[in-house]
């Protein structure tokens, strides 16, 4: 370590004021010559001005420090401070705080610490409720901050309609770009309101885990803009999110993290995204190309954006202004989210309050798929209940990978290797459906069978009034599902769960199936069972939420945010594209479904799904009447308004999701699309006028198609037909309007 000149004896003879001044000037930056820090910027400066004020004081070393991960090559060994996925050390002399990165699609991920296991993001989308989604984001954001993290790696808005077997479907917000974008925006806004930089990922078209680092998605501009990218566009514009993560895969032959069209033209250009782009972990492939294409930060390593970038800037290969812009974007994000003023100091999370929100999200997001009238259960009329399978005695399943949360109270069970680290373990969250059911039916005999012996499970079902079979499908980053059946549970004791349900249902006609899974499923036994509840990964209080729904304390109101296809053969790509080795790019052809992704694909092909997008039953009934459509114009903003009378015609309070679909003029070739919705809670007999306004200038471009010739959104003149309903297939035409 070199001696600082002010350590000389003569310094000590100087006045204290002089000594302090010398210390500031001479010792502040170690051996590199640095500009002295200026006085703190006045509060009324914009985030841009504050960032600029810092940049003029920074050395090139300091700038480079901000544009790559600081975790070094052995980050997998959890050397990252605070246990997250990544870290950028702060710059003390300029009061720039450390950045700590952790996943957060379904709660605080990366084994950072015990946190509230929220129901999966797909359950949040299934609530179709932006207010509920905001609460979800608040839990993620506030818990990240309490665990010392100030950058969230959540915001997965990839569209699982492209690959319903995708291992990360549980992290997504479903197959429709508008629903996904709006739900994600509510999450992201809430996270940033908790002083944590939120993020959108994986940008873009990262829909399968099979060969995810070499998958080369073939897609045309219109399909990308109208589907995959639209979800990101809405999420970004509606939330002011400050970071984006480019994905591992290639798009039309170029890695997403060095695809200038994607990062520079679309994200930063057309959408005016103000934040910074970080690479997915080890998804950076070059220095000059990536920097010039719009990548602002390499994560988590130093391979391309460390010394190599410094050299490229010093030799003029990458302009100094580009490096300054990278740093500017990162600092501006930090100021915009106010993390300079609100440090992520370690503190207790509000476990009880957050668990209550987790329960509420599950109660709003669980989807009742079938009910022959057996539900809700009437505890007084039941003397015996068989609860079978999926460790329902101790907990509920969660999804794996970087999104995995270590639940409050610790896992009820970990299958596989010891945990933490918990990256790819099968983790059961400690919320026992069995105990919650026992509480509801305290007068009945409620017995559990683990389902590993079909004979024993059937015997218990036969001897009981009602059988509730829990089936589960573990999903994780790093793998895709081989099929959409429940036969393949990755489990220490493998169980053919489809056969289990068939057997139990044959023994007891009052068989109810509760599904814990991340996305679409096939149900070969559907006709044999009395009821089916889609509980997704139900989270920290999943057991209570499930029991509340089964016994009618909560009326289910969730609606599917993705189609459940009837056959694997109906998928756009029945066989998942597979790489031949680990380095050679291989094609994944999205031109098959193009801009008809999700429900639009099934409709166009004439395939009847097992359950359509938007579908979900309740314990009450609703009537929609008197629907009226009128065109609206405010300045240049053309749109329409739909109003209708909604009445709860049943005997219990309940919520309906009124869904509005739109058909653009036939000349566009556009499929019918969801353009608006409202979730309305009504007491028995109550009526309400529901008004849904759809504006052409909304971030979702509801009246437009992407014109690849003019490279622009176009709302063509002609007739627009409006449909109203409560799923993508249960709709009726209610009016139309003309676009001049
Ligand atoms: C995942 C990202 C995640 C990152 C850090 C990657 O493997 O694809 O979603 O944010 O790891 O954990």
Number of strands: 30
Bound molecules: beta-D-glucopyranose
* Strand order, sheet with most strands: 11-20-19-18-12-17
**What are the segments in which pLDDT stays under 50 over at least 5 consecutive residues?**
1-33
Q: Can you summarize the main beta sheet?
A: 6 strands, mixed
> What class, by secondary structure content?
alpha/beta
- Give the helix proportion (percent range): 25-40%
Give structural attributes:
740 residues; 26% helix; 18 helices; 4-stranded mixed β-sheet; 6-stranded mixed β-sheet; alpha/beta; binds beta-D-glucopyranose
Plain-language structure description:
The protein is of the alpha/beta class and 740 residues long. It is 26% helix and 21% strand. It is built from 18 helices and 30 strands. The strands form nine sheets. Strands 11-20-19-18-12-17 form a six-stranded mixed beta sheet, sandwiched between helices. A four-stranded mixed beta sheet has the order 9-8-6-21, with no helix packed on it. A hairpin with a 2-residue loop joins β8 (250-251) and β9 (254-255). The N and C termini lie far apart (75 Å). Beta-D-glucopyranose (BGC) binds next to loops.
